[in-house]
Amino acid sequence: MTTHQAPFTALASVYDAIMGEIEYDGWAEFVLTFLRSEGFTPANVLDLACGTGNSTRPFVEAGLQVTGLDLSRDMLLVAQKKLPEVNFVQGSLTDFRLSERFDLISCMFDSINNLLTHEDMLACLGHVKDHLTEGGWFVADVNTRSGLRDLWEGGVIEGVVPAEDGQDVHYHWSHHYDEDRELGMIQAFFRMEDGSEFIEQHTERGYDPQELGDLLQKAGFHDITICEYPDYAEPDEDTPRVWIFAKVKGAKRG
Ligand SMILES: C[S@@+](CC[C@H](N)C(=O)[O-])C[C@H]1O[C@@H](n2cnc3c(N)ncnc32)[C@H](O)[C@@H]1O
């Protein structure tokens, strides 16, 4: 029997095996290089939607004090096992409250596209702003509307990977773009070696650079840079994924 699961639950045990080729180290270096060029050296970072900690690990290795936050308990359990020294917290992008403030808040691997309305995006940006130290930076990578449509329309990825417990897992993800609702959807199917089957549905909304700039300004950010990875080039209408860097008020610190 196939069980329907909440997003990022069954996925947790195979996420790392599927994401083995992702350039997490390159992304962190891209972020820290940008901040260095701004004369800014963060001492601590909050990695939002940290998942299994893959986007978190390079910041730990760079010597920053790191906190990770994610909605999924299953993803966090994997993260905590891999990075026992990190403080991982369960929480929502739209409603998190921590006692600490951070020089840098990151949200990587198009996690912010899980926010499907401007209202949720503004709620998230408001909480980000409230958790940044003076002069602190927010960074995120975001699928654009055309990126989401092109990348997700009709595509299928599948394979067999070892899960955390050593079982082979067959995964089959089918992508669909709903033009009317402007939402990208993934039906993520998993069949475990013992015959059990799971389906998770993931939904994302694309955001265009102008739209992101407007939302960031509305939330009170400034010094907004929206660019491409890895060369910081200005995006054009065909850019599938952009990176945003945005700052809150305060003096620059070295
Ligand atoms: C594609 S994964 C990225 C994980 C990690 N940042 C990485 O780079 O591997 C997206 C993550 O966003 C988390 N997420 C989705 N919606 C969320 C929300 N509203 N609040 C907090 N986390 C959320 C999921 O649980 C999942 O771990």
From TrEMBL:
GO terms for molecular function: methyltransferase activity. The keyword Methyltransferase applies. InterPro entries: Methyltransf_25, SAM-dependent_MTases_sf. The keyword Magnesium does not apply. Residues 45-136 form the Methyltransferase domain. Signal peptide: none annotated. Keywords: Methyltransferase, Transferase. It comes from the Bacteria. GO terms for biological process: methylation. This is Methyltransferase type 11. The lineage of its organism: Bacteria, Thermotogati, Deinococcota, Deinococci, Deinococcales.
